[in-house]
Design brief:
33% helix; Fructose-1,6-Bisphosphatase, Chain A, domain 1; 263 residues; alpha+beta; D-Maltodextrin-Binding Protein, domain 2; eight-stranded mixed sheet; magnesium
Length: 263
C-alpha cells in the first residue's frame, strides 16, 4: 500500500479538525445540562447529543467524501469495502457525559484498506486534542508529543476505565498484571490514551471495546512512540476483538502481553 502523500495527510487532517470543531460546538453547550438518557440493547446509555453529533459528522463526511465508508457507534456501517472508511465515536464516555464528569471525548479515525492512518482524540471540556498520523507523529494541541521511556511493569503507571468491562477471567488476568505495576488507577475513558501519548502515564489495558472505541486511538498512541495491540499482541483493525493493550514502549508492551497470557 502506497503511503499517503504530505498533501493528502494535510487535506484529511484539516477536514478532521474542522468536523471535530463542529462536534465540540454541538456537544459542549449540552454538557452539565438536562439531557434525556435511554438505554440501548446492550444496556449502555445514549443521549440525543450522541446521536446528533454522529449525524452531523456522517453528513459532513458523506458530503465531502461520497465514496468513503462510515462506521459509527449510533448508526452503524456503510460502504465498508471502500478504500477509505471513517470511524466515529461521537461521545466516548457517555456515562461520564451524563454524570457531569469532563473526561469524555470525540473519536475520529480514517482507515485505508482497513488500517487506521489518521486518528483524532478530542476532549472538548478540557480543550485538548491529539492528532496521530500512522508511521509519522502525534501532536497534542499542535505540539509534538511522545510516550515516556518506561520499560518495566514495576515502574509503570497503568490505567483502565472500569473493572466492569472485564469478564471474570479477564479481570483475573488484568488484576494480576496491574498489581505488578508501580501504580494502577481507574477512570478516564479515552483520556487515558491521550495521557499515555503525552508521556504522563505508561499503559492502558481494557476489554469489551468496539472498533470505534480504539481505531482513532491506535494511530495517536503508536505515532507518539507507543505500542497498541490486542491482548495477543496482534495489530488492531476492524476485525479485532474488544481487548486492547496500549504501552509506552515495546519492552513494557511485551511484559504486559506476557503477564496477561499466563494461566
Amino acid at each position: 500500500m502506497e503511503p499517503l502523500s504530505a498533501a493528502e495527510r494535510k487535506e484529511f487532517e484539516d477536514f478532521a479538525v474542522a468536523i471535530a470543531n463542529n462536534a465540540r460546538a454541538l456537544s459542549l453547550p449540552r454538557f452539565r445540562r438536562p439531557v434525556d438518557v435511554t438505554l440501548k440493547g446492550d444496556m449502555s446509555p445514549v443521549t440525543a447529543v450522541d446521536r446528533g453529533v454522529e449525524s452531523m459528522l456522517r453528513e459532513r463526511i458523506e458530503l465531502a467524501w461520497p465514496t468513503h465508508g462510515l462506521l459509527g457507534e449510533e448508526y452503524g456501517a456503510t460502504r465498508m469495502d471502500a478504500e477509505y472508511v471513517w470511524s466515529i465515536d461521537p461521545i466516548d464516555g457517555t456515562r461520564s457525559f451524563i454524570s457531569g464528569w469532563p473526561l469524555w471525548g470525540t473519536l475520529l479515525a480514517l482507515l485505508r484498506h482497513g488500517k487506521p492512518v489518521l486518528g483524532v482524540l478530542d476532549m472538548p471540556v478540557l480543550d485538548e486534542r491529539w492528532i496521530g498520523h500512522a508511521g509519522r507523529s502525534t501532536t497534542m494541541n499542535g505540539v509534538p508529543c511522545r510516550t515516556r521511556a518506561c520499560e518495566t511493569l514495576a515502574t509503570a503507571t497503568l490505567y483502565t476505565t472500569t473493572p466492569d468491562m472485564f469478564t471474570p477471567d479477564e479481570w483475573a488476568r488484568f488484576d494480576r498484571t496491574s498489581r505488578a505495576a508501580y501504580t494502577r488507577r481507574f477512570g478516564g475513558d479515552c483520556y487515558g490514551y491521550g495521557m499515555l501519548a503525552a508521556g504522563h502515564i505508561d499503559a492502558v489495558i481494557e476489554a469489551n471495546l468496539m472498533p470505534y472505541d480504539y481505531l482513532a486511538i491506535a494511530p495517536v498512541v503508536e505515532a507518539a512512540g507507543g505500542v497498541m495491540t490486542d491482548w495477543e499482541g496482534r495489530a488492531l483493525g476492524l476485525e479485532s476483538g474488544g481487548r486492547v493493550v496500549a504501552a509506552a514502549t515495546p519492552a513494557l508492551h511485551a511484559a504486559i502481553i506476557e503477564s496477561l497470557a499466563r494461566d
